[in-house]
Amino acid sequence: MEKVIGYYEGYDEGIRLGRDRVRQLEFATTTHVLEPYLRSGGNLLDIGAGTGAYAFYYAARGVEVIAADVTPGHVDMMRERISKERISGVTAELADATDLSRYSAESFDTVLCLGPLYHLRTAENRQSCLKECMRVLKPGGVLAAAYINRFFIAEYLIASGAKKSEASWLSRVAEQGTFGTDEQDPFLSAAYFHTPGEAETELRFAGFDVREHVAAEGNVFLMSEAVGKMSEEEYRIWTEHHFHVCREPSRLGSSNHGLIVARKT
């Protein structure tokens, strides 16, 4: 995890979900989809919480939240905000998603796993993460898990000019879901990218009952310029349209992030 921690210590995760309308849509879709599943008075473990975007959002809505992250800088930032703004209902802790032994079995109503799966490069580590999520959830509890689509990332890197179209890396990502560890970009060298079907299979293998699978951003990256120029009313209408179609299976392949909602049966 050293590469992951090093990357995030030098990256401003705090602004990512609010940086522009394209990124805002990921947050809006996730909270929209989870709205029927979370209730005030429940408790939630946000593992891989980053700087706490979701943790603070749900704490403000009456959910008791533990926000855990493997990056010390993220935990420090959350603790500083909690102290500075005197926020109640959120505790920030340092934890690895593959080892949640500090938390008791069947102790959470909800677990958010919105970052760890695309930083665990082996199937064994991803299963360790998912089985730990299963262990700490109460019977009937809800897991929200996110992944990055391997086909989106390849096309996005070419379209953005970050990489040239070369058979070597394209075939590796398509077949294995990874870039080489010698990849210059520190995020890519430490990341794993799923296919939508594979992501569902991994959750089911860990024992989860998959309830929903949505395209968090849909293909908004293809129309980022147009979305940026929309009026507030136009953007509201377009967002509502996205909410209406984001569960359509054919949208999953073109979305950056996929979101799966599952239950512990």
UniProtKB/TrEMBL annotation:
Gene3D superfamilies noted in UniProt: Vaccinia Virus protein VP39
Keyword Methyltransferase belongs to the record: yes
Record key words, sorted: Methyltransferase, Transferase
Domain of life the protein comes from: Bacteria
Family matches, as InterPro entries: Methyltransf_11, SAM-dependent_MTases_sf
GO function terms (MF aspect): methyltransferase activity
Biological process terms in GO annotation: methylation
Membrane-spanning intervals of the chain: none
Family annotation (SUPFAM superfamilies): S-adenosyl-L-methionine-dependent methyltransferases
Domain annotation Methyltransferase type: ranges: 45-144
Pfam families with a match to the protein in the record: Methyltransf_11
Stated name of the protein: Methyltransferase
Organism encoding this protein: Saccharibacillus endophyticus
